[in-house]
Write a structure and sequence with these properties.
About 45% of the residues lie in helices and about 20% in strands. It is α+β, with helices and mostly antiparallel strands. The chain folds into two domains: about 150 residues, Regulatory protein AraC (Jelly Rolls), CATH 2.60.120.280; about 110 residues, Arc Repressor Mutant, subunit A. A hairpin with a 2-residue loop joins strand 4 and strand 5.
């Protein structure tokens, strides 16, 4: 199937499945898979969604906010997480990725185990093989092929086995919580002036090391992350309120509407006024 949702480019494809009751009882089973090419408009935000999600990033950056944690998966990396918890993910840098939604007996417990031992974003020796499994799956369905329920379940187990052997960065393991404290602080204080030194001090790191580590984990420099957080807040206000641009600008940390318009247009690709006209009143 071809997908033309917002932010998904026409060359993308996806396939959805409706397993029967016996399959749901006995096997790990796919609910959806696809190969997506995305513009920077692409995002998904949900409070909950039943299946798990496995993503292999071919190019660009897959940004993920999972509960109160924030992650970024770059080309060659895998993201794996349980969509039952609140999640928000979006694309930058011309992202292309393969994905698989799946579920089944003990699937969520397996995900919890892998996230505990290997992380949510995984650099592992098996990532290339996971990519191959996903490519083979998508190409099979593109050619109107099929595989047995047992073969499909076996494919998922093979990919999970490959995930359970990561190469983890000791720095990320050691300082990930500190970076997430800084992220939460930015989100909570988006309307205030926030300095690099302030964030580094909160994380207990030097300014230089904090800046380097923050970008490694989130995919953005601290200053860019602050700007995008302000833009995200401005988007929500534009879509759900009648506040003027000047009022919104002040609430998201800009002294006047001109600053907001420049930053918003540069990063979103349309003016705040255009965004409001297209999105106000929509869910």
């Amino acid at each position: 199937m071809r997908n033309f949702e917002i932010g998904i480019l026409p060359q993308s494809c996806y396939f959805a499945f409706s397993p029967n009751a016996q399959t749901k009882t006995l096997f790990l089973y796919p609910t959806m898979c696809g190969h997506l090419y995305c513009s920077d408009d692409y995002y998904i935000k949900r409070d909950t969604f039943p299946p798990l999600l496995l993503v292999y990033v071919c190019q660009g950056t897959f940004h993920l906010e999972l509960g109160e944690q924030i992650y970024a998966a770059h080309a060659g990396q895998v993201a794996f997480f349980d969509c039952c918890q609140p999640h928000y993910y979006y694309a930058t840098d011309g992202m292309e990725f393969y994905y698989l939604h799946f579920d089944g007996p003990q699937a969520h417990a397996l995900c919890q185990y892998i996230n505990h031992t290997s992380g949510v974003v995984i650099d592992g020796p098996g990532n290339r093989q996971i990519h191959k499994e996903l490519v083979d799956m998508i190409q099979m369905y593109e050619q109107n092929g099929s595989e047995s329920v047992l073969a499909s379940s076996g494919r998922i187990y093979r990919m999970l086995t490959l995930l359970d052997n990561p190469v983890l960065s000791p720095q990320l393991k050691k300082h990930g919580d500190a970076i997430n404290r800084a992220v939460r602080y930015i989100r909570a204080n988006v309307g205030k002036k926030i300095t690099l030194h302030e964030l580094a001090e909160l994380a207990g790191l030097s300014d230089y090391y904090f800046s380097h580590l923050f970008k490694e984990i989130t995919g953005l420099s601290p200053s860019n992350f602050i700007v995008y957080s302000r833009i995200d807040q401005a988007k929500a206000m534009l879509a759900s309120s009648d506040l003027t641009l000047t009022q919104i600008a002040r609430q998201v940390g800009y002294p006047n509407s001109s600053n907001l318009i420049v930053q918003f247009t540069d990063r979103v690709g349309c003016s705040p006024q255009q965004f409001r006209a297209e999105h106000q009143g929509k869910e």
